């Protein structure tokens, strides 16, 4: 994976829930890692196909495969923007590049 393509800085966060003492739960987010990434909005055809299967996916984010485990319960911060994770795939099954399909939280 060419380093020049990874020009955006993102933060991967993990969701943690703790009891609030009143029978509810408080959600907090913990930073897992800050990594270089390529953040790309879906092209119109890809976006249209995602809508056909009722997906809300709006962006594709590529990173080097992290040492940490990330999943759909986690989220991504990119500047002032927040993305929820819809899916994760090991690109080319070589454990070099991870592609994250995500939706921007508005």
Commentary on this structure:
This protein is mainly beta. The protein has one helix at 44-52; strands at residues 8-19, 25-41, 59-64, 75-78, 81-91, 97-105. The protein is built from one helix and six strands. The radius of gyration is 15 Å and the shape is globular. The mean pLDDT is 86.
CATH architecture assignment name: Beta Barrel
Question: What ranges have pLDDT less than 50 throughout 5 or more consecutive residues?
Answer: none
> What global shape is seen?
globular
- Average pLDDT figure: 86
- Derived from helix and strand composition plus strand pairing, the structural class reads mainly beta
Query: Could you give me the name of the CATH homologous superfamily?
Result: Bacteriophage SPP1 head-tail adaptor protein
Major β-sheet strand ordering: 1-2-3-6-5-4
Given the structure, what is the number of helices? Answer: 1
Rounded to an integer in angstroms, the radius of gyration calculated over CA atoms is: 15 Å
Number of domains: 1
How large a portion of the residues is in β-strands, by DSSP E?
over 45%
The helix/strand series, from N terminus to C terminus, equals: EEHEEEE
What is the CATH domain class? Answer: Mainly Beta
Helix content: under 10%
